[in-house]
Amino acid sequence: MEESESASDKPRPWQSYHTVYTNAKAGMDGVDKEQVQRVVYEMSKGSKYFENEERKEAFIRQKIEHMRARAAKLSAADLSHYQKVADKRILELESTRDLSRIWLHVDMDAFYAAVETLSNPSLKGKPMAVGSMSMISTANYEARKFGVRAAMPGFIARKLCPDLIFVPTDFKKYTYYSDLTRKVFWDYDPNFMAASLDEAYLDISKVCEERSITGAEIAEELRSRVHEETGLTCSAGVAPNRLLAKVCSDINKPNGQFVLPNDRMAVMTFISSLPFRKIGGIGKVTENILKGVFGISTCEEMLQKGSFLCALFSHSSADFFLSVGLGLGGTDTPEARFRKSISSERTFSATEDAALLYQKLADIAEMLSADMQKEGLSGRTLTLKLKTASFEVRTRAVTLQKYISSSDDILKHASNLLKAELPISLRLIGLRVSHFNEDKRGVPGDPTQKTLTTFLISGDPSRRTGDDQRSLGSDLSDLHFISEKETAMSLDNNETCHHEFRDPFERKHLSDIDDKNCISSINAFEMEKIDELSSNKTAAMVNTADVKERTTRSPKRDLSRVSEDDSSIQREPEDSNPDRLNKEPITSGNEEFFSLNQMEMLFWVDDYKCSLCGAELPSSFVEERQEHSDFHLAERLQKEESGTGSSSLIPRLRIVPKDYSGSQNRRKKHKSSLKQGMHLPIDSFFTKKSSWQL
DNA sequence: CGTTACTCT
DNA sequence: TTAAAGAGTAACG
């Protein structure tokens, strides 16, 4: 499966460029992986995207180095302690094992491509991809033979397969067929969990019992019924939990199935040799880290390294890893889930023309607002997402006191956020609204569906169990299609609701852990808790006043009217004596900051502890103290300001240098590099939080 | 609360 | 020429 590097002395630069496409998937059997790698590398080399990938990879390498160092520093006593912690957790997790349910994961085969072929049979047998020259959503099996894969840009795919046919995406079509499949699913489990347009989880325990037939038989029947109804093939996995079922559905894809019996030995055998990369929730980065730090790659090895995992990772991450090692995950009954955010983003050719950027922003605001209206949503938190010309991603958010949904409101606040970033060269702008009004959150639009919808959703008693994780991505956004759909048959109403259920496995928290277990284990971890500030504080945020004056006034004044006046507001004074805040609470010769006067005194008790929150930060940590003060400051401002509606001050407080277009190196990434360079005596012993997942 | 990173389709 | 869009969670400041 894995690309095996044959030892040789010839330089092979392409082998070091690891893309996601190296992840061996179904239909990639006869592919010359090295050839594909080489082409991808050649096409990528030198691009902005590529450079960004390299930066990210370098960053991960550092993270790995850091963790290895910490692992090496663990004393024998530490290890024996963490071994106990791990053993205990393993026992606790094991006690939650539930083999009483039978879960089925259905996964449509090359869904988008298959649908497109249905509507245009002339595509049959030819290599085809759904997507564009920029990005491919999915490819049919003919195309996969050439190494063409989902998430691969089209121009690279065309290089791999010159005859590749491109078909644009058409979500309405996919939603229609998705609905057909879901009708079938409904017959087997009216509470099925849709994970996306083309995937779902069904608890078939009941059907199996009622009809006294096996999971395998149900799977066969369901698959053949799906085929009858849609003309599409799918694959299925049957297992005692969702995590395993998902893995199983991939085994005999396409048009196949795999059953893992509800037997502990069977599960352990299955899991033991399984590469953990196959597990949902473990992606490229986690794989690299676990491989790089511990040299492991199978689920079984996770258990063997239990002590290290507990020592180096957060409680919830360690728990997840251990449960993967045990083959646990996702046996609970689905609950109603609500959408938590809604967003819209667009990529365009990079520009630094502020007027153009504001125009794009207005377009996005418009689209987002429209989507929100369709679902009757309104929210209090607005997040602006930016991708610079060099592919660096940033987000900027405000939380307001009012719920907003109109494009005017969205645009007004979004403009303020954007303004603070100018000048900047961008290739993507996105907006997201979250923090919904509880009353009208989530329930999909159509009032005629309301009775059924509310009925089903109200079955959301057990809100506990933070058992989720998996995104379900694309399909929620398509809910409105369903309700709008002319054809919408009555049954669909039910299904519409189910689309709200989600989330395949429980990753970070095992929902079925009972409280006692949780508590005891938490205690085990809590003991190690130490001052995280000192271990995690990052160094050196340059306090350069970003001098980029907005010489570039937006022509679209009206968009930014609210903050118009604050062009007079000064930013952090250039001098910025780092200790300024330590001496006295921000006097600032700046009236605009009047609110700061209301901030309680921040000083360092015994020159060590923060008077506001008790964080311990030795006086030598100058930069960290500055940052810490700014943290309280921002917190303060934010509180006072979220009421006024004008939030333009906050972004202005950032001390980090912004970067623009090309030079995005500095900040973020360096944060951690710096951190790793820092001398942190205690943390190597006690830290439970690692630099992991920075 | 705000920001970033990771993951999935 | 050309590397998406939408969503969720964890972790940290």
Helix content: 40-55%
Q: Please state the structural category.
A: alpha+beta
Number of strands: 14
**Number of contiguous helices:** 28
Rg, Cα atoms, Å:
27 Å
How is the biggest beta sheet arranged? 5 strands, mixed
Shape: globular
Low-confidence stretches: 1-8, 442-601, 605-609, 637-694
**First-to-last CA distance:** 29 Å
What's the average pLDDT? Answer: 72
What fraction of the residues are assigned to beta strands by DSSP? 5-15%
What strand line-up does the widest sheet have?
A: 5-6-1-7-8
What's a concise summary of this model?
The chain is α+β, with helices and mostly antiparallel strands and about 700 residues long.
Outline the structure in words.
There is one protein chain. The chain is α+β, with helices and mostly antiparallel strands. Among the domains are: 1-45 and 127-162, MutS, DNA mismatch repair protein, domain I (3-Layer(aba) Sandwich), CATH 3.40.1170; 72-97 and 268-333 and 509-526, Orthogonal Bundle (DNA polymerase, domain 1); 341-468, Dna Ligase, domain 1; 532-559 and 570-686, no CATH class. Helices cover 42% and strands 12% of the residues. The protein has 28 helices and 14 strands. A 5-stranded mixed sheet has the order 5-6-1-7-8. Strand 5 (193-196) and strand 6 (199-203) form a beta hairpin. The longest helix has 26 residues, at 48-73. The protein is globular. The two termini are 29 Å apart. The model is unreliable at 1-8, 442-601, 605-609 and 637-694 (pLDDT under 50). The structure holds a DNA duplex (9 and 13 nucleotides). InterPro entries: DNA/RNA_pol_sf, DNA_pol_Y-fam_lit_finger_sf, DNA_pol_Y-fam_little_finger, DNA_polymerase-Y, DNApol_IV, Rev_trsase/Diguanyl_cyclase, UBZ3, UmuC. Its main location: nucleus.
